[in-house]
Amino acid sequence: MKIQNIYKLFYLGLILGLGSCETDVTKDVNIDTTPKLAVVSFISPQDTVLLVNLQKTQPAVGKGMSREEARVPNATVQLSDGTKTVSLRYEPTPDVYRVSASKLPVLAGKTYSLTVSAPGGYAVSGSCTVPRTEGVQITDMAVSPKALDNPGGPASVEVFTFKWQDAAGQPNYYRTLAGTRESRDPMNPNGPPRIEPFAFNSWNDKNKNLYSDEKTDGGLFSSGEGSSQLHTPQPPPKPYWLYATLAVTDQHYYRYHRSVYQQADTDGNPFAEPTLIYTNLQGGLGVFAAYNEVKGSKRVE
Predict the structure, then answer these.
(1) Do 124 and 54 share a domain, yes or no?
(2) Which has more confidence, 30 or 281?
(3) Are residues 145 and 53 in the same domain?
(4) What is the pTM of this model?
(5) What span, in angstroms and rounded, lies between the C-alpha atoms of 222 and 166?
(6) Which pLDDT score is estimated for 97?
(7) CA angle in degrees (0–180, nearest 5) for 195-244-207
(8) How many contiguous H segments (helices) and E segments (strands) does the chain have?
């Protein structure tokens, strides 16, 4: 994942506009243009592979780096649970460090640390604790039609929604991940099932698919609308099964994604309040965070 434009430096644009095009503003304005390491990694008990994305940041001003120059293929990347430490191997395609999750199982309630070092004096570290899911339960889900006001005439689409119960007495953070409808052809009931995925997109959800129980501790939450990825003209015949996946996240995961969406919402607006991308890392930028999945199912007759 590229971590670029960490700051909305509108005031720098004004400074650049006032001077000669040939003036090096970094000599007149004390700006540190030294690249930093940007590290992004999310771990989960459901993972089969542990991944760490790593590259150098682009300078705020001056000449930018090419994709190849931003790569960091010679870093030492390690994950630890406090007892066991494993090293991750670099793979040029798709430019990621990885290790099998069987080498370091990710367990709920446990704290993990990430350390990254690279030539040039780079050293980045961070830690996170995997959330528990006790008390969190998906209580209901449904697929329903939604009317659309199209220029060519009225139309409708099907949307997937679900609800879940918050675990009271502790801070909880969530992200709605996916919905699926599974059905079978009544003319061929023993044939392969028809799988229809529903995607929860941040652009059509006021919560950006992210939720906190700060003001609704122990309450009932409702998801945004997941849109069908098959766009079939007719829904399948009943009965069929619905499946929903919810991520219980740590605070770092929640705050990082909130800041990314907030910055995207102000992109291109020079008068918007600058938004910093959240980081919980020391010595670099990015995030090391954890989540734990909760799944639910429902048979619709």
Answers:
(1) yes
(2) 281
(3) no
(4) 0.84
(5) 11
(6) 98
(7) 120
(8) 4, 17
Residue 273 confidence (pLDDT): 75
Mean pLDDT over each residue of the chain, to the nearest integer? 87
**Up-side HSE of residue 156: CA atoms within 13 Å toward CB?**
9
Q: What is the CATH number of the domain that holds 147?
A: 2.60.40
What pLDDT digit, counting tens, does each position of 172-220 carry?
Answer: 999 999 999 999 988 898 999 999 999 998 776 778 899 999 999 999 9
d(CA 24, CA 62): 8
User: How many residues can be counted in the chain?
Assistant: 301
Quote the number of domains for the chain: 2
| Tokens coding 76 | 């030492």
Residue 60 belongs to what domain range?
19-130
Q: How many Å apart are CA 37 and CA 122, to the nearest integer? A: 7
Q: Is residue 64 part of a domain?
A: yes
CA–CA separation, 130 vs 43, rounded Å? 8
* Distance between CA atoms of residues 219 and 213, nearest Å: 8
Quick check: 134 and 72 in contact, CB under 8 A?
A: no
Q: Which residue, 105, 130, 155, sits at the end of a domain?
A: 130
Quote the pLDDT of residue 153. Answer: 62
